[in-house]
Model the fold of this input.
Amino acid sequence: MWLARKLIGRIVARAARRSLAIRGLRDTEGCEIRWLTPEIEAFVVAMTAEAVRLRPHAQQAELPTFGSQLMVEMAIWTIAADRSLRACGIAPETARQVVADLGWDIYRRMLALSALPVRLLTRDSGRRLRWTIRALLVFPFAPSGAPGYAVRVSRDGDDLFTHFTHCPPQSFVRRIARAEDDPELLESFRQSWCRYDWPGADVIVGDGQRGHYRRRRTLSHGDPVCDMCWIGNASRDAISGKEDRDEPAAS
Done:
């Protein structure tokens, strides 16, 4: 796990430098600013120190699989980034946007790599989704039960359902948010991690279409389940997804 932590830290720091060098920010006074290299490096140092401070509270040794430990490590860096941005005077809404963009930059690259073997094997959208998601349910989302991932898997035609009832990263962030009376942490997690699956499903299929995912309920909202549906045929009107509470706005 030590090596994985070092690697994740480097990946996150590199993504932060890449993103912050080209974007504007809004501070708590409402002013539009742009960070230069000294401010960016100061943020990276602060984020790294915050990750070190938070890690003992993550209880990773109690998690049953390496995959769940790895995902909680990513959650540590997520909330470390959010807290450090706000500590550096960045407005909470802007901090959430930055964290979401940083996370997506990393997540989409990892997901594209994970989905590549299946995309080389088949052009069928349903198979691409099912095979990739089932591979991810072996690692890192192995359903070992709480305190690890707890999930029920079923299939209906081209669609695959993964109903998660326990998510270690979400549980960790919720626990820290309550312990430190910082609800912004859970909101930052929700607006990043909990919104990646819509575009993520489209990345997996790679057919140029949107609408390969649906979810009505979410653990981070306080619901008892993340009722995920991975949709093989995105053209069907019946699964438009307009009622999805966390669905990101189309860009």
User: Anything to note?
Assistant: The chain has a mean pLDDT of 93. The first strand starts at residue 25 and ends at 26. The chain is about 55% helix and 10% strand.
